[in-house]
Amino acid sequence: MQDDLFGAPPAPRSTRANPPFAAPDPAQHYETTPAPPRRRSTEVLPLPPDDATRALAARLNPRIRLGASTWSYPGWAGIVWDEGPYNEAVLAKNGLTAYAQHPLLRCVGIDRSFYRPLTEGQYARYAGQVPDDFRFVVKAPALVTDALVRGEQGQGRQPNTAFLDPVLATQEFITPALAGLGDKVGALVFQLSPLPFSQLQRLPLLLERLRALLRALPDVRGATPDGVVAVEVRDPEWLSPAIAPQLAAVLKETGATYCLGLHAKMPRLAEQLPLLRALWPGPMVCRWNLNPLHGAYGYEDAQRSYEPYDRIHDVDAETRALIVRTVRGVTGAGQNAYVTISNKAEGCAPLSARALAEGLAATPPAGG
């Protein structure tokens, strides 16, 4: 204790010419010695990267951008954040800056834009929290990507008259995203939600509407150094032999690309890659959302099994290997690759990103 170190309080002032030495007043010490800085309750600190993580990041092609589908998970303490502890609300509001300091996490998804369009100012606030070489993968609002107007539980209520509306897509998504994110735009993703049966029977007509939408959008590639428009689908019928070539033709004509959507009701990655090859040469956008072992309706099961998302639970070796091989080929040809990962893919998105980085940094096998 400091009181013990400094001794008793000073004696009364002596009247002698040479008074004895007086011990310093502890109160004076406290007034002159600055207190150590205290972390604010809303401040999020990154976990300082170790030498191995920095070295791994340095070995990656700079066109490779790995990241999570979003941020704000308390279970990432000791992986992305320091030990904290932090709650989800604090991380959602203030965690992006700490996330973006992780050497392997060079992009992130913004999913909240799917539920409600974001403003230029909201995008600009995100952009202001990350370094210049960081990129965002942003979902277009359901306002223009869902054929149905849905209730709070996700049930379709009525047809959406704004589905694939090019004017709304520009006003509510592309224009504010470009203005707010600027050069930090990565992929702007139109995820076409599962279609009602009546629409699935008319995919050629929908393709023409998709063509009209994509042709009407501002030139994202021309406006940004790395930006691209991508289309993700949630019905396997889009990849049928009759429709997939037509979809590829629409995307190629309009300068868009196909987003590899690794989700419950979609075919495995190997079955989606032919469509990406049909667009060669071009960038890669992949959203690795769910481990296939959970089945077509297993998103909630994965969430219950994997929370709090602090470790790998189920390695998906097949998907890892195909992503590594595809990213290596795409970036080796001078194209960008964006891979965002959900915690539901293997249990912990940042650790899945690290596993991909280790695969990409390794010497490829002969002929691989």
Would you kindly provide a brief summary of this structure?
The protein is an alpha/beta fold.
Structure report:
The protein is an alpha/beta fold. It has one domain (2-13, 22-361): Protein of unknown function UPF0759 (TIM Barrel), CATH 3.20.20. Helix content is 40%, strand content 14%. It has 18 helices and 10 strands. The strands form 2 sheets. Strands 1-2-3-6-7-8-9-10 form an 8-stranded parallel barrel, surrounded by 5 helices. Strands 4-5 form a two-stranded antiparallel sheet. The radius of gyration is 26 Å and the shape is globular.
Helix share, percent: 25-40%
Derived structural class: alpha/beta
Distance between the termini: 65 Å
**What is the helix tally?**
18
What CATH architecture label applies? Alpha-Beta Barrel
Reading the helices and strands in chain order gives HHHEHHEHHEHEEHEHHHEHEHEHHEHH
Number of strands: 10
What is the overall shape?
Answer: globular
By CATH, the topology is TIM Barrel
- Unreliable sequence segments: 1-33
Name the quaternary structure: single chain
Mind telling me the C-alpha Rg? 26 Å
Protein name: DUF72 domain-containing protein
Region (Disordered): 1-49
Pfam families: DUF72 (PF01904)
InterPro entries: DUF72, UPF0759_sf
